[in-house]
C-alpha cells in the first residue's frame, strides 16, 4: 500500500504534527540558543522529551546520544533536531510495517475504546482498499452503539463497500458468523469487523471478543488474519495502558494511531513502539480519507521534530 502522492502526504503529515513539532522544536530552540549543550541543557532537554510523551527510556537514550559527541560545545538547534530525528527513526523503523493482505477473504478485527476513531478508521481503510480495486465488506460489530452502525452504513454508501449490520443490541458474534459466511460465498477480498470499545467492564468486553473470534473460526479457521488496535493520540499516556489491555484481550497484531493533528503529544507513538514493539501500520493526521496513510519511520521522525523533508 504505497501512497501515490508522497509530496502531498508529507505536507499533511508535517502539518498534522505541527502541534507536537512546534512544542518540541520550540523547546529545543529556546534551550540551545541560550547556552552551550552542557549537562544542565541536556537534562532540561530530557524533561522536554518526557513532556512530549516520548517516554523516560527514550529521553534517557537521547540524552546519552547528545552527551556522547557534543558535550559542552555550541550546537545549532537543527543539529539537535537531526540527532533527535535519527534516534526516533531508530526506534520506529522496526515497527513501521505495511499491512500485508495474505488471504481471501482477509479478515481484519478492529478494536479500540469508544471515541478513538475506530469506526471512522474502518471507513477510511475501506476507502483505501476500494481505491486499490478490492471488494470490501464492513461488519457493524459494535452493536450497542446505533451511531457506529449508522456511521458504517454511510461509509458503505460513500466507498461502495458492502455493510453487514443488525438492529442495535443484536448479538455481535452471530453477526460476524453470518458476515464471514456471506463474504466467503461472494468472494469478498477484505472483511473489516468493528467491535465494541467499552472498557468499563473489561470482563464483559473480553468474553464478547473471545466469542466473536470463536464463532468466526467456525467459518474461517484462520480468522482473524489481523487484529488492529486504533489509538487516539490525544489521550497521551493512556494509550500505553490501552495497548496493554487490548493486547491481552484481543491479541493485537498491529496499530493505527489517529488524531495526531489534535495533540502536542505525538511522541506517545515512540514510547509505544519502544515498549511494545507492535507493528504500526497506519497513522491519521486529519478528518479526510487521505489523512490516513501507511506509517513510515523516517517521515514521522523528521516531521515530529519539525525538520523539512
Description:
The N terminus is likely disordered. Helix 4 crosses helix 5 and helix 6 runs parallel beside helix 7. The two termini are 21 Å apart. The chain is elongated, with a radius of gyration of 21 Å. It contains twelve helices and eight strands. Helix 11 links the parallel strand 6 and strand 7. By secondary structure, it is α/β, with parallel strands linked by helices. An eight-stranded mixed β-sheet has the order 3-2-4-1-5-6-7-8, sandwiched between helices.
Task: List descriptors.
elongated, eight-stranded mixed β-sheet, 12% strand, alpha/beta
Quick summary:
The chain has about 300 residues and is an alpha/beta fold. Helix content is about 55%, strand content about 10%. It is built from twelve helices and eight strands.
Our estimate of the beta-strand percent is 5-15%
Major pleated sheet: 8 strands, mixed
Q: How many strand elements?
A: 8
> What low-confidence regions span 5 or more consecutive residues with pLDDT below 50?
1-5
Distance between the termini: 21 Å
Q: Please tell me what the overall shape is.
A: elongated
Category by helix and strand content: alpha/beta
Radius of gyration: 21 Å
Average predicted confidence as pLDDT: 90
Q: Trace the largest sheet across and list its strands.
A: 3-2-4-1-5-6-7-8
| Approximate helicity band | 40-55%
Q: What's the order of the H and E elements?
A: HHHHHEHEHEHEHEHEHEEH
Figure out the total of helices. Answer: 12
Amino acid at each position: 500500500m504505497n501512497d501515490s502522492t508522497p509530496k502531498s502526504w508529507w505536507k499533511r503529515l508535517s502539518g498534522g504534527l505541527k502541534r507536537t513539532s512546534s512544542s518540541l522544536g520550540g523547546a529545543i530552540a529556546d534551550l540551545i540558543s541560550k547556552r552551550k549543550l552542557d549537562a544542565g541543557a541536556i537534562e532540561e532537554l530530557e524533561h522536554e522529551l518526557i513532556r512530549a510523551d516520548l517516554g523516560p527510556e527514550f529521553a534517557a537514550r537521547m540524552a546519552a546520544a547528545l552527551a556522547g559527541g557534543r558535550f559542552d560545545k555550541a550546537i545549532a538547534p537543527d543539529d539537535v533536531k537531526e540527532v533527535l530525528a535519527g534516534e526516533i527513526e531508530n526506534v520506529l523503523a522496526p515497527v513501521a510495517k505495511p499491512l500485508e493482505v495474505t488471504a481471501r477473504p482477509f479478515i481484519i478485527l478492529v478494536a479500540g475504546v469508544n471515541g478513538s476513531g475506530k469506526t471512522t478508521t474502518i471507513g477510511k481503510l475501506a476507502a483505501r482498499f476500494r481505491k486499490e480495486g478490492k471488494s470490501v465488506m464492513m461488519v457493524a460489530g459494535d452493536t450497542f452503539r446505533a451511531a457506529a452502525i449508522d456511521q458504517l452504513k454511510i461509509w458503505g454508501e460513500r466507498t461502495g463497500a458492502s455493510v453487514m449490520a443488525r438492529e442495535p443490541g443484536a448479538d455481535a458474534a452471530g453477526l460476524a458468523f453470518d458476515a464471514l459466511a456471506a463474504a466467503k460465498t461472494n468472494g469478498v477480498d477484505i472483511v473489516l469487523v468493528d467491535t465494541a470499545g467499552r472498557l468499563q467492564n473489561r470482563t464483559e468486553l473480553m468474553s464478547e471478543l473471545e466469542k466473536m473470534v470463536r464463532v468466526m473460526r467456525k467459518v474461517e479457521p484462520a480468522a482473524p488474519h489481523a487484529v488492529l488496535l486504533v489509538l487516539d493520540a490525544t489521550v497521551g499516556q493512556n494509550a500505553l495502558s490501552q495497548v496493554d489491555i487490548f493486547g491481552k484481550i484481543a491479541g493485537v497484531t498491529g496499530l493505527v494511531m489517529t488524531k495526531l493533528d489534535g495533540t502536542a503529544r505525538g511522541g506517545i507513538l515512540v514510547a509505544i513502539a519502544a515498549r511494545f514493539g507492535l507493528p504500526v501500520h497506519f497513522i491519521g493526521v486529519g478528518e479526510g480519507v487521505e489523512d490516513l496513510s501507511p506509517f513510515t519511520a523516517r517521515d514521522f521522525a523528521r516531521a515530529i521534530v519539525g525538520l523539512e523533508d
